[in-house]
Amino acid sequence: xxxxxxxxxxxxxxxxxxxxxxxxxxxxxxxxxxxxxxxxxxxxxxxxxxxxxxxxxxxxxxxxxxxxxxxxxxxxxxxxxxxxxxxxxxxxxxxxxxxxxxxxxxxxxxxxxxxxxxxxxxxxxxxxxxxxxxxxxxxxxxxxxxxxxxxxxxxxxxxxxxxxxxxxxxxxxxxxxxxxxxxxxxxxxxxxxxxxxxxxxxxxxxxxxxxxxxxxxxxxxxxxxxxxxxxxxxxxxxxxxxxxxxxxxxxxxxxxxxxxxxxxxxxxxxxxxxxxxxxxxxxxxxxxxxxxx
Length: 293
Fold this sequence. Notes:
Domain RapZ-like N-terminal: 4-158
CATH architecture of the largest domain: 3-Layer(aba) Sandwich
Mean pLDDT: 88
Binding site for GTP: 58-61
CATH superfamily of the largest domain: P-loop containing nucleotide triphosphate hydrolases
Number of helices: 10
Organism: Pelistega indica
InterPro entries: P-loop_NTPase, RapZ-like, RapZ-like_N, RapZ_C
Keywords: ATP-binding, GTP-binding, Nucleotide-binding
Largest sheet: 5 strands, parallel
Distance between the termini: 23 Å
CATH topology of the largest domain: Rossmann fold
Number of strands: 9
Shape: globular
């Protein structure tokens, strides 16, 4: 089976981690490929019987990156099964990462030429987000804010394994106190439900642990809300599938992302277990991914 994965997105959002994961999965990887060579390179690689191909393109790449959506459309028109993973992170998180690495933003010189003044790091980040906005709106987005590398590697592996033409349904729990994941297509707030956090014996556990699950299942309101969310998704999922998209991410949020949202996401995954491919992610619980990395 042929599989072509393009890693792109905002500088500093984790493209190196993603590309190395694909390399570990036996993909033939090329980093920082010039935009103008993407079509030619993939076509040549496939002609040489390379079935697993991964390419990383970002603001460092030579050429006008605004041409990337058109090039991707051209590849798909030729029935080349290309998956595009767009990585991004909150501006505050990107500022922190650049501060730690002490590296200059790759668009610094370009923006300096355009504005005739030295831009700040934040200005470079916002300029890049604006530049790549058209591509972000059409592809699979992963918000790497607050993610540990093991989580990102696991998510990239999941996406790379999805057969072409299939829609990946993902239920993702998160903590409202850390902000909404920008990659979510649908967001449901379950903070109105009873909170196991206030039980000292349940506080150290998560929504995947039986004592927490049993505690939450005793409340009719919990099952009613799960049923309502499930009914909504079941009604509208067929239309999302007709929208030629390759993924649908349903985010479930509570205050800390540890108990209620995790339990609801797990229950919804069981309800929709008939749909494949299906994934469950817990954004605030990095330890859940120890069996995936």
